[in-house]
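Deadline looming. Please check this record:
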Amino acid sequence: MFQNRITKLFRISYPIIQAGMVWTSGWRLASAVSNAGALGLIGAGSMYPDVLKEHIRKCKAATSRPFGVNLPLLYPEPEAHIRTIIGENVPVVFTSAGNPKTWTPVLKDAGITVVHVVSSSKFALKAQEAGCDAVVAEGFEAGGHNGREETTSMVLIPLVAAAVQIPVIAAGGIATGQQMLAAFALGAEGVQAGSRFVASEEASCHPDFKKRVVDVGEGDTELSLKQLAPVRLLKNNFYQQVKATELKGATPQQLTELLGRGRAKRGMFEGDLENGELEIGQAAASIGSIRPAAEIVAELWTGFKSALARLHA
């Protein structure tokens, strides 16, 4: 059986983490991934505390394996989610988009394994100093909210691995076993895949969004809304509106008004593929089908081993 610091830290069989994504990663996806031997994450970013509690309890009922919650700290009232997570004895938490010093000690005191998502070696060091057990080095290729530095995974992963002593999980541009092997060659000990699990049968996003993701090609996404919180969007009518507004020199207030409320839910959960916010990574161009989550985990691991064998040959 394969073992390294990541598999030991999370008590999993494969060093693969399914990213916690808004409107996509509920208890069905997280439990399916965990049952397959990887680590499934519930995405708390699109949930109220009572909804998160429901998903945690259903996930516990659906798997006896470790799972976690992804908690973006930029969303309002993270304290309520923290109370829910601690009260429900969630074993693992991945935090992002905020200062890890604020909540890591609280979570660690509750016996929770804490991982923070970073976009630079500077922030990786801050996460290590805050007491995090590992970091996710997320490159510019990733979907959803992204780092302002716009550093690609190929550059970021080795820089972060050289900067910290805690394990590094690579994210951004990873949807195949070959890409996973490349991340390991750069110093990662695990990978976090988001876009690949969007195109899974268990993902909670709209079926039409999943089908659109499968059809994504090179250049079909772009990092947008940089004056607010940079986010990688799939190009559609809403994206074109954002781009046109930005080219006219829009203020952050104007972009906020254009974004409005519930735009991501409208696109990814409700299936409005033209006027909704569709968050997906560049790796979507490597996805060719909608598959059960367990098959995706197996495909990643088999592809990783096959790619490694070809190199040895």
In short: The chain is about 45% helix and 15% strand.
